[in-house]
Every structure is written in structure tokens, then in C-alpha cells.
Amino acid sequence: xxxFISLCMIVKNESKVLRRCLESVVGLxxxxxxxxxxxxxxTQEIAxxxxxxxxxxxxxxxxxxxxxxxxxKANGEWILVLDADEYVxxxxxxxxxxxxxxxxxxxxxxxxxxxxxxxxxxxxxxxxKHVRLYKNNNRIEFFRTVHEQLRYIDNAFEMRxxxxxxxxxxxxxxxxxxxxxxxxxxxxxxxxxxxLKTASSxxxxxxxxxxxxxxxxxxxALGFYIKAYQKKEEWTVEWVARCTVSICECLIGxxxxxxxxxxxxxxxxxxxxxxxxxxLEGLIHFYQxxxxxxxxxxxYILLHAEKLSNIIxxxxxxxxxxxxxxxxxxxxxxxxSNAINxxxxxxxxxxxxxxxxxxxxxxxxxxxxxVEISDFLTKHILQETSIQFYKKVVAITMNxxxxxxADMLIADVLGExx
Length: 418
What we know:
Blueprint: E1 5-11, H1 18-23, E2 31-36, H2 43-50, E3 54-56, H3 63-72, E4 78-81, E5 86-87, H4 90-102, E6 109-118, E7 124-135, E8 140-143, E9 149-152, E10 161-171, H5 176-182, H6 184-198, H7 202-214, H8 218-231, H9 238-253, H10 257-270, H11 275-287, H12 291-303, H13 320-332, H14 336-349, H15 354-367, H16 370-381, H17 387-399, H18 403-414
Parallel strand pairs: 1-2, 1-4, 2-3, 6-10
Antiparallel strand pairs: 4-7, 5-10, 6-7, 8-9
């Protein structure tokens, strides 16, 4: 029987994460195809534990070529594309497969929502949609050397892309340590610059701006974001919305608040029910010390979170960060009860927020003994977290001069492992 879905992956030196990815799909995907572009760390051996369809391909500094080679080996009706540092929830994948089986002729190509964990511990999330599922009908291919996209080989076909409703891809490749180890910025920037030499598309300019921003070159990045936006062919393309958010964020980073507010005002008329621009407006008021208006914006987001479903850049803008900022504002205003409540609420969305935990400890230290704080932390904050995270919390208590609290955490939670 012909496979229904083939998973196609290209990998290189991914022994640390490949097993996690494959375990999330094995038994649900009918065929797994892995193309290795030169691993030296045992990646192929891990791959062969899950599939006998492992191929080697000489890396030509072109992601699309490698992806299309992997697709040429696929026998399934559909092709799902994942990277080794990604994974899915099995229940979500089951729902997606059922959806495809019941709607097989609806679209030929589907975009999937990707949640990217960033920071040291994945404490923040940014999201984007990317085409990752398509019919294996020999009419569709990847193009571009990096940040590859799908297209019909024959331009006579209309490009119709659906969004798969149930599947989310979780991506850990932007964690700070991973980015540094793999030197992704240099690699991506080199490939983008190659693309720009042949055709200076708006999407290439946008991707170059992202790389420059990652390097901390905010002024340069802003210039390329603006050029990309000006060169866009249509505003409904998904990256254009993210580009608009990035323009605002760069302007805020450069303290050009009036310019940022002007962009936000225009954007709110286009991107309805989005928390992103409301949050950014609140952030500007926060930086300007206008706490009344900042609170109004952040409270609005939390009160209308269900309605604000059009998340462009990050779900953090709808839940975690408004709570965190409200906690900070109330702390500044010495309304410590509200401050604690909002800091704790922020932890409901981001349990690894060292900023929230640090401020909670600082406020509690004004009114409670270190024994009481230790009891509160171990019972309500630090449950089911890693030893590494506990060490960071202990470091916070030491920096605050709460040495007795640090000793209690070590004795009660860490034992001899510190």
C-alpha cells in the first residue's frame, strides 16, 4: 500500500536532538526519509534506528537542493518537512493526519505554525508560519538557497496555500547556546547575500534584516526592514506582518518612540485583533514613564486575550509579558500585592522567567522571613524544574544577599548536587 505521509529531513551533526524529533513522529508517519549532508557525530546511526531510508548528499550550500533530493526519495501521497531540532506533539499529528485524510483535495500545500523557543532556557517564544506539508505529485518544489519556500514547477498552476489547523512544530534551534555552537548567523547571512546578488527580492531583504538585528546592528536592520516593506508585492503575505512588528521593535530599540507610534497606529487598522501592536504601544508608554496609559494597554490585552487571536510575532505579547510589565509597574508604584499577583501570573505562562522570580523574591524579602520565602518557592514556584534552573535561582538569592535562603534551597532541594 502506498504510504500516506513521508517525512523528509536533511540533517548534519544533529545527534543531540534527532532522536527527540523522530520519537515524536515514529509509528504515525508511514515513511521516514533522512538525507545526511556530512555528519561526523553519529547522526546517521541514530537515524538508522528509526528508518532504513537514510541517504547521503553532498552539501552544495543550498537548502532547496537538499530538500528536493530528499523529496525525490519519497513515496507518500504527502510530504512533511521537519528539521532535526524540531518536534511535534503526537496527538496534534494524529489530528492533522485525520484532517488530511478527510480533506485530501482541499489544498496542495499547507503552512504550519512554528513556535520557536529563544533565550537561554527557551523562556521566550516567537512564532511564524512556514510551508512544510505538500502533495507529492512531482509538480511542487523548494526554491531559494536559504529560508526556502515552495512553488509549483509549472507557473500555470495557481499558488493556493492552506494553514493546517491542528499541527504545531516546536523549534529549539534558536536557543542561545545552539545558535552560538552552530554559528547559524554567519551561514545564513552568507547564503542570503548570495540570493541578493541574483535577485533582490523583498523577502531576501527582510531575512537579511533579521540577521543584522540578531547581530545587534539595529540601525542597519531597520533600514533593510523598511526597504523590504516598501518592496513588498502584497501586504497579506505572512512575513510582511512580522516585518511591520520588527520595524516597530527596532524604532523602540532606537528610542524613536514618535515614529514607532505612527507605524503602530497604521498597523492597527490593518492587522485587526492582534495583541502585538497594542503591546508595543503599551511598552512605549512604559519606557516613557506613562504608567497610567501603559497599564491601560496591558490590562486591555489580558482582559481581551481570547479576542486577540491574530498573533503575529509572539504569544508572549498576549500573556506572559503584559503580566510581567504590570508586575513591574505595580512594584514601582509600591503596590506590592498587585505586583506579586502579576509576577506570579506571568509564571503561569513562563515558568522559567528568572526576572519574575527575582522580583517575587525581592518583594517577599521586604515582608517575610527567609524561611517563609523558601517554603513558598519550593511549594509554588520551583516544583518540577531542573537542577540547572534551581542553581540559577540560588544565584539570584545570593546576589540579593539572602544567604540563609540560598542555604535552605541548597539543603531542601539541591542536596549534594550543587
